[in-house]
Amino acid sequence: NINYLEQEPLYTGEDGYLIVAPGDKLIPRFQIIDSIIEKRNSSTVVYVKDEKIQDIVPMVISRQGQPYTDEILDYLRVLQTIKVNDPKNLSRCQWLRDCFCYNGHICAIEENRFDSLSALLHGRPRFNHGEIRSFIRQLLKSVAFLHKVGIVHTTLSPRNVLLCPQSLNPKIKVASSATGTNHQGTKPSSLLSAQIQIVGFHCAVFKNVGYYEALTPYCYTAPEVFQGKQWSYACDIWSIGCMIFRLLTGTNFLWETEECEVLDLIYQRAPGSLGEKYSPTTTNSSQSIEHYKHTLKRIDCPAECSDLLGQIFTTSKKRITAEEALKHPWLR
After folding, report:
1. pLDDT tens digits, residue range 152-190?
2. What is the per-residue pLDDT for 249?
3. Separation CA 135–CA 190 (nearest Å)
4. Which region among 210-224, 247-261, 281-295 has the lowest average model confidence (pLDDT)?
5. DSSP 3-state assignment of 316?
6. I need a surface site. Which of 21, 68, 271, 316 has the fewest CB within 10 A?
7. pLDDT at position 321 over 90
8. CATH of the domain spanning 117-169+192-331
9. H or E segment at 269?
10. Strands (DSSP E) found in the chain
């Protein structure tokens, strides 16, 4: 349910985005702390002070226009499904705190944000197996819950996995990456000292519904997405495999490149994942093949870990599920 509140409005730009600045109030409860910290096709994200709970939280503000309203309503349905099916938030997935409509813009209040895995990767190229197993177990449990309730995340990557401290004390001021403004947060020093929280559900879909295009960075996107197939739970598992590879080796399973070359790179590293009918369109494959063959060998990757990756980097029909992966010997 959305409460519709109208008062003296802020201005909406010609592009449909609400124009906000620090100090603005949409309603008495929420005051803008930062200008826009993230701009999406259908919405913007700002930090606001919630006077009710005396905390600084992110607010998503939809762009005006029916297509953008429909998109954020889909996002709210996903978050509501998560909350209804997990009222104690045991799955460690993003929750919706509140929402309302302001002058034709739907505003959604999210939970506070901590540093992402992406931020930790900048300071540490590789992680030990104990840390990786602890992190991947948490991630798979969260994803298994999402799949159980019919949700495909579609954009799983290090930037959409937050690292929340197991104990919220002591607190360290963490700067917003976009504005430099200090917000209260805690920065875990390792994966072992962190609990995860999955965010980034603005592109999530219910199974067999929605997008066919690559939404997450190419290096975390499943090959079937580039082949124009429908989103499935297996797409999320591929993304998790790419994260395992990144944590183990310090390099991406794939690098950013033109979309037309991505399938060839995947074919070179995991040819079985594309099916028997795929034929590569380029011939300069030696660099990719050698990189993939020798990287795991160079870091002395355990056989059980290699086996799990082999069950991930395969066709979507053969790909291991989140529930099955949790029972794999490397993660037990």
Report:
1. 999 999 999 999 876 433 333 333 333 334 444 455 556
2. 84
3. 10
4. 281-295
5. coil
6. 21
7. yes
8. 1.10.510.10
9. helix 259-269
10. 3-5, 25-27, 30-32, 38-39, 43-50, 55-62, 96-102, 105-110, 151-152, 161-165, 172-175, 182-185, 194-198, 205-206
* Angle ∠(217,223,227) on CA atoms, nearest 5: 110
Distance, CA of 238 to CA of 218 (rounded, Å): 12
Domain boundaries, the chain: 24-109, 117-169+192-331
Cα–Cα distance list, 180 to 37, 58, 164, 175 (Å): 10, 15, 20, 5
Q: Which of 138, 119, 111 is nearest to 192 (CA)?
A: 138
Residue type, 329: P
Secondary structure E strands in 117-232: 151-152, 161-165, 172-175, 182-185, 194-198, 205-206
For residue 289, pLDDT beyond 80? no
Among candidates 87, 231, 212, 210, which has minimal Cα distance to 145? 87
How many angstroms from the chain centroid is the CA of residue 49? 24
Interior angle at CA 161, CA 326 and CA 100, nearest 5: 120
What's the chain's average pLDDT?
79
Q: Which of 216, 245, 80 is nearest to 157 (CA)?
A: 216
**Least confident range of 5-19, 239-253, 285-299:** 285-299
pLDDT in tens, 240-274: 999 998 998 888 776 555 554 555 666 565 655 55
**Domain 24-109 CATH class label:** alpha beta
Whether residue 167 contacts residue 63, with contact meaning beta carbons closer than 8 Å, is answered with no
- How distant, in Å, are the alpha carbons of 40, 65, 134, 273, 305 from that of 311? 34, 43, 19, 10, 10
Q: What are 330's two structure tokens?
A: 């490397």
Quote the pLDDT of residue 61.
95
